[in-house]
Amino acid sequence: MFPPDTAAGLAALRCQVRGAKGRNHYGVRVPPALSVLTRNKDFRNLFAADLIGLGADWFVMIPLLTLLPHLTGTGVWGAFVLATDTGVTALLLPYTGTVADRLDRRKILIAADLSMAACALALLLVRTSATAWVALVAVGAIAVAKAFFAPAAQAALPNVVDREDLTSANALSGSAWGTMLVIGASLGGIASEAFGPYPCFAFAAALLTMSAIQVWRVRRPLQAERETTPAHPFAAIAEALRYIRGNPRVASLVTVKSAVGLGNGVLTLFPVLAAYLGAGPLGTGLLFAARGLGALVGPIVLRRVLTHRAWLLPGLALSMAAYGLAYIGVSMLTWFPLVLAGVVLAHLGAGGNWMMSNFVLQAEVPDALRGRVFATDFMLATLSVAASQLAVGAFVDHTDPRLLIAACGTVTLLYSAAWSAVSLRRPAPAAS
């Protein structure tokens, strides 16, 4: 990070750079947050790979979450699928983060994409209640690949953009998940209703293959030169944990996503809520799309927070509280369009929360430790998600979904209050 006495000079330099670079090849001015896409081919390819892969994920999950209750007659399988997706990833992240710091991140990303494509095709075997277990195995294998992909992709991002573009690249990267959740969830719901789940699974495999091709086209190295080989994986994990424990600001950032994670059991309730309100499979897709729209808008709306050091930790606290309050409000609504609006608001806070914490971690954590620190960050977030989804799954078949949604919102709100009481006493992370 830059020392405080250089902040004003850095801000002036950033303005000059954006003024010079904020045009495309035809001389047309583009927004600063988008100009990095027009100027940087490697970031554009990596961003496209992320978009395509994220879109493919929803051509798997939305059809699968509507198929399994139809085959089995219970919503528990949907909870198992979501918990498997997050839980397996969480358990592997400490190791895969170390791999992201030891091996070629480009090869990791390509291998992960191709593995997920093969697993998506395995879902074509899920035809009866007796073969529902195949879905868990396939989703578990996809989760393994995601566990390798996520820390490698996040750790690679600062290596494909210039320092002055990192804020814009993070805003775009943070919005990518939301963008493809809007598009992927909407189209996944529509395609599932129109064509059935199996063509969706095949299409997802094709998209993941395209994502691997985009990663292959990135030419910049995705990690810095290593002067020494990282330690044995378990020793390397211990090194990262010591670093987190010795840096209170980083410790705050790697625990902040757990607030939203502990409220994420609401995702298990989306198919149930859609049926309860008479919206059907298309309604399930629209609920996930509303979640994505919020996650897309959140990083854009809250991007300004990144340039104000004093706003970062309060902004994170407010974003958590917004998520909890919004879902408490959703639990009281019965008109589906208002429910969608509430979900958008909740995930606006969640998307901004994710983007802000990622940005500061990328800026502050050394490259040699970045993959492991992000792995720890993702592990805590996904473990909290899996715990929430399993807890909700235990009650989903015999409890009013509105009560469960209110409970999820309340848990996030309480976590936000506890996190704020501890973390807001610490100095705010420096903003680049």
Automatic annotation (TrEMBL):
A Pfam family assignment: MFS_1
Listed Gene3D superfamilies: MFS general substrate transporter like domains
UniProt subcellular location: Cell membrane
Membrane topology according to the record: Multi-pass membrane protein
Keywords assigned by UniProt, alphabetized: Cell membrane, Membrane, Transmembrane, Transmembrane helix, Transport
TM region positions: 46-68, 74-96, 108-126, 132-157, 169-190, 196-216, 250-276, 282-302, 373-396, 402-422
Highest taxon, organism lineage: Bacteria
SUPFAM superfamilies: MFS general substrate transporter
Claim: Transmembrane is one of the keywords in the record: yes
Record-given protein name: MFS transporter
